[in-house]
Amino acid sequence: MVYWVITVAQLSHSPWVVRENGEIRDRAKRPVFTERSKYRQCMAGLLAPPYGVMESGLNSDRMPDKENMNKSVIGSLPNSVKKDVLNVRVKTEKTVDALFTCGPAHRAPSQNQIWEPPPGHVGLKHPSLTANPNLALNPLFRYKELPSLWRLGSSPLSVRKEVLPAVEARWRRSALMSSSNPSGSLPQVPSEKVMRAGKVLRHAILSKAPHMIRDRKFHLKTYRQCCVGTELVDWLSQQSPSVHSRVQAVGMWQVLLEEGVLNHVDQELNFQDKYLFYRFLDDEQEDAPPPNEEEEKKEGEEELQDTLLLLSQSGPDAHMRMILRKLPGQRTLDDLEIIYEELLHIQALSHLSTSVKRELAGVLIFEAHAKAGTVLFNQGEEGTSWYIILKGSVNVVIYGKGVVCTLHEGDDFGKLALVNDAPRAASIVLREDNCHFLRVDKEDFNRILRDVEANTVRLKEHQQDVLVLEKSPSSGRTSNQSGTSSHYKYNVMSGTPEKILEHFLETMRLDSHFAESDPALDDFVLMHCVFFPCSKLCPVLMAQYPSMPRPLATYNARASQGSEQERLDFALNNKRRVVRLVLRWVSVHGAHLQEEEASLAFLEELYMSVSDDSRVIPALKEQLPEVEKQKVLLRQFSVGEERLQKQQPIRSSDEILLKVYCLDHTYTTIRVPMVAATQDVIAGAADKLGSAEDLLLVALSSAGDKVLLKPNDISFFFTLGINGRLFVCPRDQLDSLTPLPEQEGPTTGSIASLELMSSRDLAYHMTVYDWELFNCVHEHELIFHTFGRQNFRKTTANLDLFLRRFNELQLWVITEVCLCGQLSKRVQLLKKFIKIAAHCKEYKNLNSFFAIIMGMSNPAVSRLSQTWERLPSKFKKFFAEFESLMDPSRNHRAYRLTVAKLDPPIIPFMPLLIKDMTFTHEGNKTFIDSLVNFEKMRMIAKTVRIVRYCRSQPFNLEANQASKNHQEVRSYVRQLNVIDNQRTLSQLSHKLEPRRT
């Protein structure tokens, strides 16, 4: 490093240069201009400010004054070179011109000047031909880096030998990145973790498969110490069961490639599973020593699994960035699918249709900026792009007002200027370092809008839209009613309930090849309760099943002009479609239909009609048994020994015995329906208490927090806190309410019992109980919970119990740790909980797994530093791995990727599914211009189908029959006693380990 400064600053005085292999040769034997070109970038780094020449995405270059330099850094330099560094730092643009014959530092060379690529790089464009005006200003070494090298005792020669390969590799990669994507810059200096990961993997390869790193010849050229991409993927896939696919392995190697720890021999930026040559950074040096020391090999072997875990966590993001850096025309179908899946979880795009998201997947551009304070665009400028924040945050600044708001991950900005073709209404400034964006340029934005309008079909009645369809490509050839085939299909975007139903009946396939259910029809059957209740749907369905139905509008002309046989065929097909839709409707709604007399009456009427028609129409005979079967199943609901032995779903028609407490802690018991409203409970309590006062119903927590229930709240009995209770009192006595002593929870832990139970047994019985609760949750309860159960007069008690179980397990972990006064016992408890979590993960019980890990991450537990210090490193690594799955960044991407690799049965992390549905509901209107927003219904139905997929296979895990305390463990996990007052838990935690002063 020292040598670089002296050589460049005293270029005309030094007769010697150091070659790349470390030799010293006479400078006169090499043209002066080559030396200047070679070191131009390094000099630019010294002349640039510590944060780079230009931190704005526009043209607001800024160069700080000499006085703004870090004096402490300059003062730490050796006296022999301090003067030279300061002289270099204050050179004017004219001096730089003279030194490099390249023009000012912030300009590219003119056409009359010669520009040479850096050493070893072929094919780099002239800076003036690149999209990045700052190509020649990419700082590789800052003057602030010099002292650290000197303090390490690096001589000029050693700096040249040890650092130059990394410098040149980073320069070439950064320059190539700048030429292909001006904003998608790669890290200039590898992070310590990734650098170490590269060393560990290199050592592991040299130890286990040394033949992989060797000199290779290709087209008469020798590439020194290289690996092949396909071999690296093969080797990585064999090292750990956590590497599930070659695509995942590619992403893991991409992490190293992005940070320059692994490099393509031609400086390509994307790692590929092909016969391409890659070289580790340590092998860039000609005399790189092999890992001969046994100790280093042993450490590397121990670190290998940790390294693979680190890369597996970072790999998906690196793989996504790799895809987004490709030019749109270079993205494969698999690439587009990966981008599309990512867009599904971005808040700013939640309101867009599926086809628009797929269009965006093909045009989105990745953009990254390294430093806070970077200005993306200024107020008043022309709008050229729409931005979506992938990582980081930005400030929205308006002249005269300053920062008016802050936008975070998932938010978007810049769209208004494109839609209105108006100047930017505000400036956007990076709020933090290392921000990532997705960018849509104006041309692509406008094209997508035009395509959407061109592919939209509107059906009007009385000059009003009644059905809006969107034409989109089909995955296979589809046939329409006329028998012609097409590569396109029409998706319902919005419409009136009746027209949406007519459309699905018209387009339903009846041939055996299309016997499987249509996903769009499934969406209607699942979501119709939101916009088309059964009381309205049943009459409309029956109207579609007369003996001679009125032909649908689309086929009116054909039916009226055709022969008598055609009209009969048309009527028969209509009947078959109605029957098929009804069968699907009954299978999805199940027990919920049994609670509605209108639905049961409709099924009886339809059965009689199908039975009568089947006598004269043979084609309907095959459907009659199915209709009869569904009708019988509904009538016999909740009958049978098997149902009586298992956890039974709670129905809206069920009743509950409810304890309601008074101000003096006495209580009365009342019997109310599950869908009883607040006013019904108050009326029942007042009648029992003989009170004529105007009473309030209050949910009182153990911490004394009061929630006044609204008159129209229904089925709230299982939404209380774990230790919450219901109170009634006059309004003027509301402040006098106090919690019951029993609400405080246990005073002693149950570690004595836990020590006698194996971790696997505990995890097994937790999973069995959780599966019972999860299996009782009807799909429609998710919908009722999202849209408000009071709007349907239906209970969500099964879902509430399952969500309550998550909170209970989380508090159980915290309670047991905080009630354990002995340090060694607490360490054993932590180990126990980590083991239980591991077994839950093995059983695919992600709900309990997350509950336990979140309990251990609670401040009352995580602050117990003395306890955590004594935890063995093995368990600390397990816990760190488990915690990484809870990472909420990128909309819980780590968790979603983990679930995607699992096969059913699965017990999912239910709070996240609820969050997804709430997010979709609140971000999209249910009705648009009086039409049902069916795109919203489709998005919510997709989340609900995740629950259906998780339960698509039965849970048949065998219990450990050798366990002596089988029943004790089962009873224990179903009757947990917890403290749910966070203040109490914190106090107990501070008693165990007081805050250090």
From TrEMBL:
<dbReference type="InterPro" id="IPR019804">
    <property type="entry name" value="Ras_G-nucl-exch_fac_CS"/>
</dbReference>
<dbReference type="InterPro" id="IPR036390">
    <property type="entry name" value="WH_DNA-bd_sf"/>
</dbReference>
<feature type="domain" description="Cyclic nucleotide-binding">
    <location>
        <begin position="348"/>
        <end position="449"/>
    </location>
</feature>
<feature type="domain" description="DEP">
    <location>
        <begin position="207"/>
        <end position="282"/>
    </location>
</feature>
<dbReference type="InterPro" id="IPR000651">
    <property type="entry name" value="Ras-like_Gua-exchang_fac_N"/>
</dbReference>
<dbReference type="Pfam" id="PF00610">
    <property type="entry name" value="DEP"/>
</dbReference>
<dbReference type="InterPro" id="IPR036388">
    <property type="entry name" value="WH-like_DNA-bd_sf"/>
</dbReference>
<dbReference type="Pfam" id="PF00618">
    <property type="entry name" value="RasGEF_N"/>
</dbReference>
<dbReference type="GO" id="GO:0005886">
    <property type="term" value="C:plasma membrane"/>
</dbReference>
<dbReference type="InterPro" id="IPR000591">
    <property type="entry name" value="DEP_dom"/>
</dbReference>
<feature type="domain" description="N-terminal Ras-GEF">
    <location>
        <begin position="488"/>
        <end position="632"/>
    </location>
</feature>
<dbReference type="InterPro" id="IPR014710">
    <property type="entry name" value="RmlC-like_jellyroll"/>
</dbReference>
<protein>
    <submittedName>
        <fullName>Rap guanine nucleotide exchange factor 4-like</fullName>
    </submittedName>
</protein>
<keyword id="KW-0344">Guanine-nucleotide releasing factor</keyword>
<dbReference type="InterPro" id="IPR023578">
    <property type="entry name" value="Ras_GEF_dom_sf"/>
</dbReference>
<dbReference type="Pfam" id="PF00617">
    <property type="entry name" value="RasGEF"/>
</dbReference>
<dbReference type="InterPro" id="IPR029071">
    <property type="entry name" value="Ubiquitin-like_domsf"/>
</dbReference>
<feature type="compositionally biased region" description="Polar residues">
    <location>
        <begin position="472"/>
        <end position="488"/>
    </location>
</feature>
<dbReference type="InterPro" id="IPR001895">
    <property type="entry name" value="RASGEF_cat_dom"/>
</dbReference>
<dbReference type="InterPro" id="IPR018490">
    <property type="entry name" value="cNMP-bd_dom_sf"/>
</dbReference>
<dbReference type="Pfam" id="PF00027">
    <property type="entry name" value="cNMP_binding"/>
</dbReference>
<feature type="region of interest" description="Disordered">
    <location>
        <begin position="470"/>
        <end position="489"/>
    </location>
</feature>
<dbReference type="InterPro" id="IPR000595">
    <property type="entry name" value="cNMP-bd_dom"/>
</dbReference>
<dbReference type="GO" id="GO:0005085">
    <property type="term" value="F:guanyl-nucleotide exchange factor activity"/>
</dbReference>
<dbReference type="InterPro" id="IPR036964">
    <property type="entry name" value="RASGEF_cat_dom_sf"/>
</dbReference>
<dbReference type="GO" id="GO:0007265">
    <property type="term" value="P:Ras protein signal transduction"/>
</dbReference>
<feature type="domain" description="Ras-GEF">
    <location>
        <begin position="758"/>
        <end position="995"/>
    </location>
</feature>
<dbReference type="InterPro" id="IPR008937">
    <property type="entry name" value="Ras-like_GEF"/>
</dbReference>
